[in-house]
Amino acid sequence: MSSTYPYADRYPVNRAMPEHGRPEADILDELRTMAAEEDGYWEGGHVSGSMYCGDHDHYAFLTQAFGLFAHSNALQRDICPSATRFEGEIIAMSLDMLHGDAVTDTTPGGLVTSGGSASIAHAVLSYREKARAEGRTGRLNVIKPETAHPAFDKACHLFDLELRRAPVDPATTQVDVSAVADLIDDDTVALIGSACNYGYGTVDPMRQLSDLAVERGVGLHVDGCLGGFILPWGQELGYPVPTFDFRLPGVTTISADTHKYGYAFKGSSVVLFRDTALRNSQYFYLTDWTGGKYCSPSMDGSRSVGLLASTWASMVKNGRDGYLRHAEAIFSTAAAMQDAVRSHGDLRILGLDPTFLFSFTSDDFDIYLVNDRMKLKGWRFNGQQYPNALHMAVTRPQTQSGVAERFAVDLNEAVAWAREHRDQAPESGAVYGGVAGGMTDEADEFIKMVMADMMDQQLSLPD
Ligand SMILES: Cc1ncc(COP(=O)(O)O)c(C=O)c1O
């Protein structure tokens, strides 16, 4: 699986359009072989994040729902009025989960997008467009905790806003709210808080960020891409999850990914707005086009209704009791895995109150030594840097019986090995770890070159 083009020696490489079409059965055979092998990689529950559901019966159900509408275009509602039902209800159910009912002075609304980065981009775009409509002409900025997802940096890059980074407290991994306050100026349109962040699974001090946003008259986006569809249920179950949704008066937008803990197919997410006026600020219109009058609510033009149908189907199939049941299994598995980490005096969990996701490091040896050993047992963690750490986003595959216990056993062995080999350079550290002594311009350039090469390869054919 590590080779970029592992199938080149098994199947012909299509370097040009095939002259003659192939039989369906033959194509499906090939696809099934690849899918089965790749599914084998995560089905045992050793992979962090990524496969949030992992239930093949659920995938088969979603495939049916998708298939019924895959060919319909959500842009043309006269042909597929069902899209309005799916989209409206996905937004309404998400607003219900994130307490849109607490909003009394405006009408809340939302958009269904193609993923977390798109939801974040739409939120950032809406703040920019609203500010421009109000006549603000300066270079607008948003302020994110340094732990917030790169999608904010990307959105600011795309829409030409300045991104300001506020430091986090290394002990709690939560953003320093007074540093955020110091960064606000007349051109600030929004603050960001994560619920929870990708790196540590911790939630920023949302109540304080909300108070600050209200006091200074700026927006507050809550990035619930990762946690939006599981933290509300964790809170309801009594886990220590702070309130982060529309019950806080300063929260103006929330992103929450249906394609993560909503257990829908990849390619769907929701961004919610406290006020539909903010959402509508980024609607696109072209009224005098020769091709006819055009409008679209988001960056996509044509979209498959299949994604809306299957996302809707996942939500109504799970319902509150289904989401609660899965959240209970995930939170309790995460707690057991965190206990296994805490049982080693030379391992340290980063941050205060990690949730279904936790990150750990060591002050005594390079944590990538542990990663090297765990990798041999099939574990795939997300590698972090500054400080070097490993993170595990617990998903449903880890809730299978015996997985948390296996994690504890494999971790014992890996930690013992790391202690013995502390003077050795870890293999995986070179790829995933931070630059010793901190980032330099040369290292930055070199890493970008390696990444560009990787992306080029992923878009190319084998030699
Ligand atoms: C906290 C957080 N925000 C945003 C994103 C971006 O989501 P996507 O990869 O769907 O664009 C992620 C993805 O892991 C995330 O964890």
Give the SSE layout.
Layout: H1 24-40, H2 56-69, H3 82-97, E1 109-113, H4 116-133, E2 141-145, H5 150-159, E3 162-166, H6 177-183, E4 188-194, H7 206-216, E5 219-224, H8 231-236, E6 253-256, E7 269-273, H9 276-280, E8 284-286, E9 294-296, H10 305-342, E10 348-349, E11 357-361, H11 367-376, E12 382-384, E13 389-393, H12 403-420, H13 429-432, H14 441-458
Describe the structure.
The protein is of the alpha/beta class and 463 residues long. The chain has 2 domains: 82-313, Type I PLP-dependent aspartate aminotransferase-like (Major domain) (Aspartate Aminotransferase, domain 2), CATH 3.40.640.10; 319-432, Aspartate Aminotransferase, domain 1 (Alpha-Beta Complex), CATH 3.90.1150. Helices cover 41% and strands 13% of the residues. The chain contains 14 helices and 13 strands. The chain has helices at 24-40, 56-69, 82-97, 116-133, 150-159, 177-183, 206-216, 231-236, 276-280, 305-342, 367-376, 403-420, 429-432, 441-458; strands at 109-113, 141-145, 162-166, 188-194, 219-224, 253-256, 269-273, 284-286, 294-296, 348-349, 357-361, 382-384, 389-393. The chain has a 7-stranded mixed beta sheet, with helices on both faces. Strands 10-11-13-12 form a 4-stranded antiparallel beta sheet. The radius of gyration is 23 Å and the shape is globular. The model has no long low-confidence stretch (mean pLDDT 96). Bound molecules: pyridoxal-5'-phosphate. The site of pyridoxal-5'-phosphate has 12 residues, from helix 4.
